[in-house]
Amino acid sequence: MALYNVGDRVIVRENLGTIDNNYRYGYGSGMERFCGQTVTISAVNHDFEDENCVVYSLAEDDEHWKWGSDDFVGLADSSTSQPIVSKKADLKTAWGQYCDTDKLVDDVMALLTKYGHRNSEYGVCKMLNEYFTNKKDLIELFQKSEHYIGDMRMMIDIELERENSACDIRKFCDEFCSNVGASKLLLKYKDENGKKFEDYLRTGVKSITAKDLMKPETATKLKKATEAQDKFARDGATLASHMVNNECYGTVRKFRNISISTISKEFAESVDEKYKVREGMKTSRAFNRVCTFYGIDKAKKYNKLFAQYADMVNGLKRKLKFFISVNPIDYLTMSFGVNWASCHTIDKENRRRMPSSYSGMYCGGTMSYMLDGTSIITFVHDHVPTNWEDGKIYRCMFHYGNDILVQGRVYPQGNDGRTDLYKVFRNYMQDELSALLGLTDTIWRKKDNGRVSSNVNSLGVHYRDYTNFSDCNVSYPRERSDSSDNVITIGHSGVCPHCGRPITENGRISHSSCRVPLADTAWTTVTTTTFSF
């Protein structure tokens, strides 16, 4: 929506001069004569539904040049003029009721500097002014919550099942017998008579002639020796012990597809009765019974490996912290995971040494989410961070407006064992919104078709995971069912934290080359200094 309308009288900023970068759409010869003057909006082009992309024309210049809202101080009527925010003091005056804005500016500048993004006090203040302007309604909604902890964040204590990755369990079971050394215990190199394969190579007959073979006693000896040799494998172990060894390996590998804490009826019926595995038995106990049956529980490495397996399948619950936030720092660090990163990371050089950081190819998306009016970041820690760069265990974006809730992808994965993290996080979010919105019916419905695209209008340069992953979804309060087809806008064009001008590049937060507008060059510029916070 455009900030100004046709017929509005606005004041052009002073000191824009003739410098191209000082104007939203560049300088044109003669534009400087309007600086400090009151002019009339004669045309408004806002096809992109984003104030940073609106083009204004002026009656006084015969609609010759393109103007942007940043080129104006505000309406000529002082009672409705827009405040100019370009330094800390301005930001504090305008938005200091929500947080310590001086500290927020310092923290944002320090974070951007640390990861190589150009910034200045002027640019960061312009960016944060846009943030507060658009996030104001969500911030004030959050402040009503009993879980509000200040600084535009809520926190809920939760319990979550310990991660028991199906992939990790499969790998563990496939490798367990080898790792525990089962074959060393199960393969036997002597038969029931206490003899080895080589013992049967000695028949007690020094030499044999064709005539000797006609003698019953010699033929019997040779036959018994051959039959005994046939009971051994090429490695010298008995065939019977190889069968036991193979059976053990096969039975243990059956556990590779179980990632729940108790044995199902189907699994109990699929294994031999001799193991005494029963439906409802703890999975770790059933695993131990199989190992005890074969005697591999006596292996030196068994206790350590079994404890590892039990941790994976026992479904123990962890006490964690679930954060719901619209704090700017949390958007900028949205892809700082414990041991993961995503394409939105601002750590383009992978200084945090994650397995894959995708070169921060969508790092501009952090600002796209930060500056819109709908995007909320949720994430999980096992503590309350003092340094908000601490790696997140999980992260999920939500987008709320017009009585609909859009859920983005859960990173780094959507399941914690059998736990559906999409459902868990969505329930927490819905419960919190129900209380804040004063809903009498706290039930929410999730659209079954799974198509999010019809409910969103996407702007900005963030990666649209909510339309690219099938687990992403739209939900709405049951008592407001007529909102199911409502549309919300997700994303916003960026504001360069150095020059304060719009930026729309996927892989950049700030312009590679820009200057702080001439009239504001007195404000601090930071490009190389490292801050700690």
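That was protein one. Protein two is written in the same sequence-then-structure order:
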Amino acid sequence: MYSEQGEQEFLTELEILSEYKHKNIISLLGYCDEEKERISVFEYASNGSLDRHVDNASLTWTERIKIGIDVARGLDFLHVGGSTQASVIHRDIKSANILLTGNWKAKISDFGLSKITAINNEMDFMIDDACGTPGYVDPQYVEQGFFTRKSDIYSLGVVLFEIMCGRTAFLHGQEDLVHLVKRHYEDGKLFELVFRDIKNTIVPESLTAYVNIAYECLHNEREKRPDASMVVIKLREALEFQVDIEVWEAKRPKDYKEIIQLSKTPKIYSDVSNKVLCEMFSKGILLQSGKACLSVNDNGETNETVSATMFSYENNRLHKRISIKKSRFQRVVKIMDISNLKTRIKIRTQFLSPNLIYGAHLVFKFCDPRKFPCNLMYVNLKYQMGNETLHSYFATYGDDEWMMIELCRFIPHKKDVVFEVLLERLSRYYCGSGAIYLEGIHFRVISDAILKVKPEGYEKLKGVERDLKSNSNSNSVQQMSVDYDVITQLEDGEKLFSLSKANGKKWHMLSAKMVLYESSDVKCYNWKALDESESRFQEVAELLSHQVFRIKCKIETQKLSADTDYACYLVFKLSQKCHGLQCPVKVRDVLLRKNKEFKFLYFRSPRAVNLHNIERVPKPREDGLMEVIVWEFNSGNNDHVPMSLKLGCYEGTMSGLMVYGIEFRPL
């Protein structure tokens, strides 16, 4: 029914919400005012009003403080006027007028009773009509008949205690909440009113800060009530106390006190919060000798770096200890000849987290600044661990031009682990002839890993190997070939196709003869005839001593399912005389002339330290051959899909690689 009061409240709300826009004030999306029909459309707050959730046991103390901050922040925006020159007094702040979004963000609503006044006007309005809600309304308004911004603050204080006590201000047959709070506060028993389901989770300092500012809002004298901006500040302090214990205390390492005592400057850590302490730990703490740096990740797990000045060098004339900028240590070691490192490392860690997977990384950078096209650089570090000669092929590019080469992965059973390795050389061909700065060995927790670790005498990495897997998804390495129907031979005897049992999609296969590109003047392959019982094809190609070979063909899409993503598998095996192909192989799509990027693959299963998220690793097939992905594409809707790939190995040749064909399977 139409009324002048309803019309005025409707227009007031439209005026305010059209002018005052803030993340903690409900947004007006639209309205209708036609023939005495008045409709307002607001943003949707899926959790409804706050009064329905004050006794919600799943609403944590941290979330409750954040709701209080949101309300105070929205009220502060209204009181200071935002970008306008006028201030808004809400005049009906209560939990029923606080709306909550799906992620518990609070927004002030219902501005029908609000008034707009000049910002510098302290004496606001003599009120003839009643406003506010019993239990929330400022008692000075009841006595004196006028509202000020501090009257909103009183109502805010009531809402804050509703949030803390888990009940609304006015319940039929029960004592008024404000009277109850004041009586318990004066008796020193306010903690008894805290909502029972959150009582044991609250940090005492957080509750004290919260109660103090909420109680100030209820002060009988308006002048002594805080501004909304001060309420925001104090509630944030309450939140910081809570989060510092609830979140940051759990991220401290268990032996943080011992670590602090061993640091170079233990006094600076004595009076800081857990958050600041964790931030300092995450950046790294130098231990007393200055030869080790310890840092802590977000899970409270320790990483440790040992300075290169602790290593042994056979030729001191080619190894110099110097100071440079942007190093965690006072000195690093400059190595002049990277092809003859002659660096023996035997160090003991101090604070590794037991029973976690660690990677040991060599940290270095080139003395001459370099630009890298991608995050990986081929360096082929040769080194010895125990009686094994090993290779780590890639260095990853990090901050301040420092690079890391992973040497091994292991699981320490205690904090202090002896680590031994002999560094022999980096590839001069790929790294150049310049010098490097060696910073140290960095031991870092690896959350996603498949590794080989030696359980007996693990600290020296001696003993029998065994596979250890983390909880990560390792399907890219472990997954076997999918099962397919029997292959049907076509007329030319060289093209085959079938339907996948998994999803009914077509797959297609081409022989080596149809896909291997050979120039007229260079012999790249030996062709070997095969019986039908030995192979599906008549011939197999064995590569000769070349570093590069090409795959080039046109794929008939009629043999494939339309508009489907496919993987292209190279089907191969290694001959008995093949002793190479340990290193990674680069694959470049020649048709993408402007794109110089390439993919990596392996023809032999690599060590975990050489994976670097490279998913193209060989897998065994049911027919006794091997396969590896060399390309991915979409079949589209054209008659043909051109494919032209260039495969090249970094070291050695492709000699002994026997190519049977290419298989196209849906992803």
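The chain has twelve helices and 37 strands. Keep this in mind for the problem set.
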